[in-house]
């Protein structure tokens, strides 16, 4: 299999697994340790962060273009599914959730959002659950916003709307004693 380097142009939105959606603002050439390196300069507005990624390392770090419409539709379908409640210790689940979020895989992020969502009539989340939920939801919303060219709050509302509808379906099964 021929290794074809990923190519991004200035202005492209990209997904960096650990940081989410950013934008290529510049292609730079720099000499580091006596070697000429070509770098993508990525800007993550929400975090007010700039990241430089060597062009030859973009693929190995998992950097990718925005998801396809098909992948986004599959992620939205995941949100409509029944939440999976695991009975393992929270610390272990939290690690699994963080790993899914940092994988950059849209379907995995959607699973975390679905599993940690709490409707208004459900028990409240712990602080750490809420932090992980908000992080995953924000990551999903930023990619949706970039794809649909809307702002992040509108994308987040779209996601929460799907989750509320799904919760209404799955929570009516539970009849209070």
TrEMBL record:
Record-annotated CarD-like/TRCF RNAP-interacting domain positions: 7-117
An example Gene Ontology biological process: rRNA transcription
Record InterPro entries: CarD-like/TRCF_RID, CarD-like/TRCF_RID_sf, CarD-like_C, CarD-like_regulator, CarD_C
SMART domains xrefs: CarD_TRCF
Protein name: CarD family transcriptional regulator
Annotated organism of origin: Sphingomonas endophytica
